[in-house]
Amino acid sequence: VAVKVIDKKRAKKDTYVTKNLRREGQIQQMIRHPNIAQLLDILETENSYYLVMELCPGGNLMHKIYEKKRLEEHEARKYIRQLILAVEHLHRAGVVHRDLKIENLLLDEDNNIKLIDFGLSNCAGILGYSDPFSTQCGSPAYAAPELLARKKYGPKIDVWSIGVNMYAMLTGTLPFTVEPFSLRALYQKMVDKEMNPFPTQLSSAAINFLRSLLEPDPAKRPNIQQALANRWLNENYPGRAPPNVTYPNRIHLEDLSQSVLLHMTEKLGYKNSDVINTVLSNRASHTLAIYFLLNKKLERYLASLRKAEGQDNICHKNQLYQIEKYKANKDSYEVKLVKAWSFKLPLSKPNCSCLFYNLKDKKVKEQEKKGEILHRQLSKKTEKSPVSYRQPSSCLISQIQNTKAVLKDRKVAKAGGPEK
Questions:
Q1: Cα-atom radius of gyration of the chain, to the nearest Å?
Q2: How high is the mean pLDDT of the chain?
Q3: Is 97 exposed, middle or buried (0-12, 13-18, 19+ CB in 10 A)?
Q4: Domain boundaries, the chain
Q5: The one catalytic residue among 7, 14, 41, 99
Q6: Inter-residue contact 333 to 262 (CB < 8 Å)
Q7: pLDDT value, residue 368
Q8: d(CA 407, CA 400)
Q9: Beta-strand (E) ranges in 45-164?
Q10: Hey, which bits of 2-47 come out as E strands?
């Protein structure tokens, strides 16, 4: 996991941070999206405030751009598309991020975008906040001109910031720069559309999409749904972007991993109803953190099995095996294994952190044939077979006999001859 630590003593120096200290955690519990870093737990002490989130081992996108100087168009399209999907999800939930920049874009182990840092985010008509906004915040290089001018603004400021991020990915620089730095001069460049030149290798479709995102007039600038429907953005992608679930976005009961739930109740002592309610409500706690980490570990193992079997095209919901759970009594659960999609895979694969299931042998009693949790692969007892020696060839036998005769003659000669 990754932990964001907020020092309360330093936060007291900024009235805005002090007032909205807990807003970041509240907002992240409202949302769930594959391109947004998942909040797992919130801890608070006298001096610090901790946000425990999922780890993004791919690092910061800024480092990748710095190493490559700039990204290829197809690679930037993937990242921008994922970023727009995440922001569309936020806007549907009534959340405006207000700090979209390259530094807040991380990469997971599969090279997918993970959006972080909701410290400046705000809600429109939710949690008592009103729309439009007027607070001047965020990084000036990524901020929309209406925000810099201290005008009333809305969700379209995120669309402008996406355009700045797209320009940074494709060129390795920012679209508007002034020397020496001045907010007034920066604002004037934005309004006059005096962007830095585009690389010659960029396609006209990418440039046109960039210009539409960096439209200084918010009335002419597309909203996030219109940006998502852009032709360049969906090039080489089948159909439109996958639909998002409108707020409140919660995981469905049928999507919960039954194997993880059983492990947490049977082995870790959690109440099944508590785990289900915590995960469905997306409530940051140690229960949600444990479920998330165990499920992540199981997904990695299933992915390794699919790769080993050459079946990488299997959908996540159609896993190799489907666990059919039913309640046996109030205190215990039994499971049985059902083969899915007619995949005839061996059941003796090594399990993942006690989360795999296996059927008992057919020879056991009838009442025990419902199934059991397999917590470790027991080594099969094999009978010791007698050691078999390889018979030497005739050539080797003759060499051994000759060597013995030579050694015998040397021993006799050393002892003084056969007479002694």
A1: 32
A2: 78
A3: buried
A4: 60-228, 253-373
A5: 99
A6: yes
A7: 45
A8: 11
A9: 48-53, 59-60, 95-96, 105-107, 113-115, 122-123
A10: 2-7, 39-44
Check residue 124 and give its pLDDT.
Answer: 73
- Whether the Cβ atoms of residue 278 and residue 285 lie closer than 8 Å to each other: yes
Residue corresponding to tokens 């090039």: 235
Record the tokens describing residue 77, joined without a space: 């399209």
The one-character DSSP state at 70 is S
Residue 154 parent element (H or E):
none
Q: The whole model's pTM is what?
A: 0.71
The helix or strand, by DSSP H or E, that contains position 376, with its residue range, turns out to be none
Beta strands 333-339; 95-96: pairing state: unpaired
Q: Alpha-carbon distance 72 to 78, whole Å?
A: 10
Provide the token pair at 342: 């007619």
Q: Cα(208)–Cα(214) distance, rounded to whole angstroms?
A: 10
- What is the β-pairing status of strands 333-339 and 321-327? antiparallel
pLDDT for 293-335, tens place per residue?
A: 999 999 888 888 888 776 544 444 444 344 443 333 333 333 3
- What's the token pair of residue 142? 């990524």
Element (H, E) at 286: helix 286-309
For the chain, give the longest Cα–Cα distance.
123
| Superfamily the domain 60-228 falls into | Transferase(Phosphotransferase) domain 1 (1.10.510.10)
Alpha-carbon span 284 to 37, nearest angstrom: 13
Token readout for 391 is 């018979």
Residue 133's SS3 state is strand
Q: What are phi and psi of 52, to 5 degrees?
A: -95, 120
Residue 95 sits at φ, ψ, to 5 deg, of: -110, 130
The CB density around residue 202, as the number of other CB atoms within 10 Å, is: 16
Tell me the per-residue pLDDT of 185-196, one tens digit each, with 9 for 90 and over. 999 999 999 999
Helices of type H across 93-155: 145-148
Q: What gap in Å lies between CA 323 and CA 169, rounded to an integer?
A: 43
Q: Is 373 helix (H, G, I), strand (E, B) or coil?
A: strand
Residue 117 catalytic? no
Residue 214 confidence (pLDDT): 97
Amino acid sitting at position 180: P
CA-to-CA dists, residue 346 to 6, 7, 312, 339, 340, angstroms: 49, 52, 17, 11, 13
